[in-house]
Write a structure and sequence with these properties.
Elements (H helix, E strand, L loop, with lengths): L16 H9 L3 E3 L6 E3 L2 H8 L5 E2 L26 H9 L5 H19 L8 E2 H6 L1 H11 L6 H11 L9 H24 L5 H7 L1 E2 L2 E2 L2 H14 L2 H16 L1 H7 L5 H12 L4 E6 L3 E3 L2 E3 L4 E5 H4 L3 H4 L29 H18 L3 E3 L4 E2 L8 E3 L1 E4 L1
Parallel strand pairs: 2-10
Antiparallel strand pairs: 1-2, 3-7, 4-14, 5-6, 7-10, 8-9, 11-14, 12-13
Helix pairs in contact: 4-6, 4-16, 7-8, 8-9, 8-10, 11-13, 11-16, 13-16
Amino acid sequence: MIPDGFPDGFYAHGHPYGLYEAIRAEGGLVRHPSLPLWVAGSHAAVHAVASDPAAYRSGDGILIDEIGVPFDTPPTIMHTDPPEHGRYRGLVAPAFRPSAMRRLEGAVRERFRALLEPVEAGRPFDVVAELAVPLPLQVICLLLGIPEDDWPRFFRWSESIIPGAAPELSDEERAALRMEAGVYLVEVSNERRAAPRDDVISQLAQAEVDGDRLTDIEMVMFLIQLLVAGNETTRHAISGGLLAFAENPDQWEAMKRPEAMPTAIEEILRWTSPVVYFLRTATRPAVLAGRKLEAGDHIMLLYGSANRDPEAFGPDADRFDVTRRPEVPGLAFGYGPHFCLGAALARMEMRLVLEELRSRYGTVTVTGEPVYNGSPVVVGLRGLPLAFA
């Protein structure tokens, strides 16, 4: 049922929903045939693990390649557990509060309107390259306080960090880009320590944990995560959502009602589920989905499978419905202490995109073959030819 490993090309067409259905049919939690982990595909199992960081920790690695790999320092705050996670998260959380997002809204709308100016009604264009990539990238760079001339570099750095997101890059090129990003971010952090500004980098550069300033490694850890989380996932939610509307024109019509906007955003997140998985490690013996786990067992949380679980979202879970009001939470942003820090930012960007497009266009049509990035970690579209009319 589950392939021997996750070979190249396994996510070439997005989430493998047929496999997810088979995992759920086996009870929602199955042993991987060759990797040392369990695979959780039901909403109940993924939600239970994400809700209990004491029983299922993140500090032993969150990706398959990290199993058994010790960390001198956490690569990201996603690799930390309470109470350390809470201390780190508290440093940057104020920058992403809903009140902060409301102050940013005007600038984001202005940016998106500028991106829409070259888009002609009826003209096919690549919505990924022209809209979905630049908007989140510009917004996160604005928050961080990055000079506009450097924004294109941040796109390449972000692509190099996500496993499989840029298949054209060799391992050597990825390593070089990551090193380049680290050097740049340390330099900017040191500049903001000496001369703070009104931006997130300055906020972190002045912050303290237990009386100590963040080290260069910790600064890079924070900023790389903010770059990727604030850019890649939102991009794929926007482009994947527009593909869903193009394939379901009745839902584009339904979304035009103002009261449908909040549910439409949540349905896009459920439908696209850009983050494929993260791992957790059991800290003690447990029973999950009727299976006995031992301390040290790794569990792969398949968010895309959980978000299509009929037990959670009803028998029409495989239908895109912007009026859906589920009784359970969607898991595209994770759950529990690791719930996505930038959720309010992503929702705000998605809302502005839909509002602006809804006010301009009556239809959205696919004009070519969608191309997926094939990443086994953050899956989404690399290209999507659309036409608005």
